[in-house]
Write a structure and sequence with these properties.
- With 162 residues, the chain is an alpha+beta fold.
- The chain contains three helices and six strands; from the N terminus they run ββαααββββ.
- The longest helix has 18 residues.
- The protein is elongated.
Length: 162
């Protein structure tokens, strides 16, 4: 029997139950549902449910290191600290990004600081953060990524001010 299409018309190109169907996993018999618009019976197979994924418990030491590194990088952003002092904490692309940000030398030091910090550790070797910065009297969003090096140290691999 050909299966109906969205408008409940006959579809002669559809597979019928006598032919094998590839790609689907039959775990239970199909669930019968009635179309609320026209009242026809439509068959749907449920999606198989896999095992639950356990969340990774974030490492407190790694989160603390990420926050300290981010605070130091904000000092580079507003010119309070030279890049060479924190170059071992981030990849060179991060340094180029922070030094390319426009800085007004007439403003007082301490113009950039981390106001809120929301870390996430999707993998044991990676931390992603969403932060809020106070830059020259304005709030800005900041996204940063930290990864573990071969020596087991955390380095910042990406910073973006939004």
């Amino acid at each position: 029997m050909p299966s109906p299409t969205r408008n409940h018309e006959e579809n002669h190109n559809a597979t019928d139950s006598s032919r094998p169907v590839f790609g689907g996993v039959a775990t239970e018999p199909p669930v019968v549902q009635i179309c609320p618009t026209c009242g026809q019976i439509a068959e749907r197979t449920p999606v198989p449910v896999g095992p639950l994924v356990r969340d990774l418990v974030p490492s407190a030491d790694a989160i603390r290191t990420a926050f300290r590194t981010l605070a130091l990088l904000m000092e580079v952003l507003d010119g309070r600290r030279p890049w060479r002092q924190v170059a071992h904490l981030a990849v060179p692309e991060v340094g180029r990004y922070l030094r390319a940000a426009p800085v007004d030398p007439r403003l007082v030091a301490g113009a950039a600081k981390v106001v809120s910090f929301h870390p996430s550790q999707p993998h044991r070797c990676r931390i992603e953060t969403a932060s809020s910065l106070q830059i020259r009297g304005r709030r800005r969003a900041l996204a940063a990524t930290f990864q573990v090096t071969g020596e087991g140290e955390w380095i910042c691999t990406m910073v973006r001010i939004l």
